[in-house]
Write a structure and sequence with these properties.
Layout (H helix, E strand, L loop, with lengths): L2 E5 L7 H12 L2 E4 H10 L6 H11 L6 H15 L5 E5 L3
Length: 93
């Protein structure tokens, strides 16, 4: 089973640097909501109800539902679970 860490803290506290150091040293994958959302918006089409709902909300400038963010993160972790030695969730929850 892969290692799963979550780093949270104040802005400019070094979380991202620490996460990248862990990733480099141990082969972990760093996961951020920002990266997930950027990837989602870069896709040429919606893939399912969740991504369609999130994409439409972002395009409309609306706030995203907390449950949608949790579901996006869970989906990302599940998609990488077999290929990564571990994960570092950055600023989540």
């Amino acid at each position: 089973m892969p290692i799963m860490l979550s780093l949270i803290g104040k802005d400019q506290s070094g979380k991202e640097d620490y996460a990248q150091a862990l990733a480099k040293q141990h082969g972990y994958t760093v996961i951020t909501l920002e990266a997930i959302l950027n990837d989602l918006m870069a896709q040429p089409q919606e893939l399912d109800d969740l991504t369609t709902r999130v994409r439409n909300a972002l395009l409309a400038g609306q706030n995203l539902r907390d449950q949608d963010l949790v579901d996006l993160m869970a989906s990302k972790v599940k998609s990488l679970r077999t290929s990564a030695s571990g994960f570092v969730l950055l600023d989540f929850p």
